[in-house]
Predict the 3D structure of the following.
Amino acid sequence: MRSSGVLMHITSLPSPGGIGTLGQEAYEFADFLQASGFRIWQMLPVGPTGYGESPYQSSSVFAGNPLMISCRSLREENLLTYEDEEEFTPDDPEKIDYEAVRKNKLMLLRRCYEESAGKMSHQLDLFHAENPWVVDYALFTAVKEYFGNVMFSAWPDRGIIRRTPESIRKYSELLKDEISFHVFCQFLFRRQWRSLKEYCNERGILFFGDMPIYVAEDSVDAWTNPDIFQLDRNMIPKRVAGVPPDYFSEDGQLWGNPLYRWHRLRFRHYDWWVRRMKGMAELYDMIRIDHFIGFANYFSVKHGSPNARDGKWVIGPGKKLFKTLNKEMPGFRIVAEDLGCVNQRVEKLLRWCNYPGMKVMLFGFDGDETNQHFPKNYGKNSVAYTGTHDNDTIMGWVGSASEKALAMAMKTLGFKTKDEAPDAFIRSLFQLPCDTVIVPMQDILHLDNNSRMNYPGSIGGNWGWRMKPGSLTLELSMKYNQLNAETNRR
């Protein structure tokens, strides 16, 4: 079935408090999607953000980001009392000030905990029972705060680094109230998430999530499962993930994530991966696995290297992992992010899995019509994008593209001026044979590169874009409803 969707991260919604939340504005966005004929809402990973506020460096593969909790919704439920002026108001409504948002949001959530946790004890007990991961997450977060937020491998108490039973008991008692607070925040996140997802699903809108292949070095996942990662005795990675020099960076990208011990996971029947994927299925209707090529072969770089130039390719788990996942989770919709170094091993695994791969139109105009991202080369079993969160916007691209690339795009897509480019790209995208097409919200709004979400390989200034209030107009909705109808995607 042909369908279309919008890539719009939760934090980019124009909610009160300086960051997008799971509150009223999320429901209004869902209404916009439905009225416009879109059937998919794609978002970035929703875990607590890590280094550089990246959602791809989260402290947990299961937890939700407390900053996405809507305090307005809590107030409407009489779970939290505060005045509007107590909620942070940013100077720039189109950018997230993470430090200010975090300070304000946690203050309000602690107040909610004090006011309402006691009267929700039964619901919290059920949440504990249904989500066994939350105890380790809350303990990890509380201990990390206790030690000044340094990386867990640098905690001054070696016992808690190694999770000795005595240390677990000690800090569980010492930080009991703080642990309970973090459990409470996860309970609130899941409660609001389920409500929004049910609302969307009832209106025919699917949640399309994004799952990084790797976990962060400073994560509860590495802390509680050191045997499945390439860590030394001090919990420091021996080798880390990255990619070789490519379109985005001449030095490659040194991500720094610990690599898996795939032989150990195979011996354990990939139990951790099964739990992780089942956790994703609780949150989403379909999932994009970021850096899918790493399952066929992954790039391994020695820890401490200045860049990724001297890394090496290592064979990954291949079919064995996905045979297990398919058995445990038949029918769960997976999209393979297959951008980058696609060799025969990657192609073979993709064919065997039969997962849709990705096509990105902005990659298609290098002068070579055999380029797999050139629009005429797209197949049915693909998810096609104008661009992703790692790309410039269409308006940003046409402003910086070479004359040759811009001329090729103009000729292929049929536009004459740069201002016409977003509509020409999007209309051409919808006309493609691909089953699914996705457009970033920035491209729908014709925004320039000031609204770009991420510059790969750079630290600072990323992940901060927010949509202006009032952007979701009736005119815009009618425009896309018609386009979806004309291209049989509604």
In short: The mean pLDDT is 96. The first strand starts at residue 3 and ends at 7. Residues 256 and 448 are 30 Å apart (CA to CA).
